[in-house]
Write a structure and sequence with these properties.
This protein is about 50% helix and about 20% strand. It has about 120 residues and is α/β, with parallel strands linked by helices.
């Protein structure tokens, strides 16, 4: 009888640990996405020269402001010349729109580092 009670408690404890781990991972991934900024505000920051670096994805544009280590993101305008405008403004640009998928995306999501 004691073995069955021990197994039952072990299953409950492991289940609780698993739920907490999943919740923590979800919170961490959500935090890594950064703060949403409307494209109009992003455009003003760009015009004012306050953007340090940009990573372009098919659905969003992630960026960092000058003197700020936090991550921000906005909608990808998907307009011709957007990347060129960023480059001509002296911004470090990483284009992730080509070949987005597979192991590289998973690696980037979990480790936020290039391969």
């Amino acid at each position: 009888m004691k073995k069955n009670r021990f197994k039952g408690r072990l299953i409950i404890v492991l289940s609780c640990v698993a739920v907490i781990a999943v919740a923590a991972a979800a919170a961490l991934l959500n935090q890594e996405n950064g703060t949403y900024v409307k494209y109009k505000e992003f455009n003003k920051l760009l015009s004012d020269g306050k953007i340090k670096s940009v990573a372009i994805y098919t659905d969003r544009v992630e960026f960092q402001k000058e003197g700020d280590s936090r991550k921000y993101y906005t909608d990808n305008p998907e307009t011709d010349g957007f990347k060129e405008r960023l480059l001509l403004s002296g911004i470090d640009v990483k284009d992730n729109t080509k070949g987005e998928g597979g192991f590289a995306v998973v690696f980037d999501i979990f480790f936020d580092a290039p391969l």
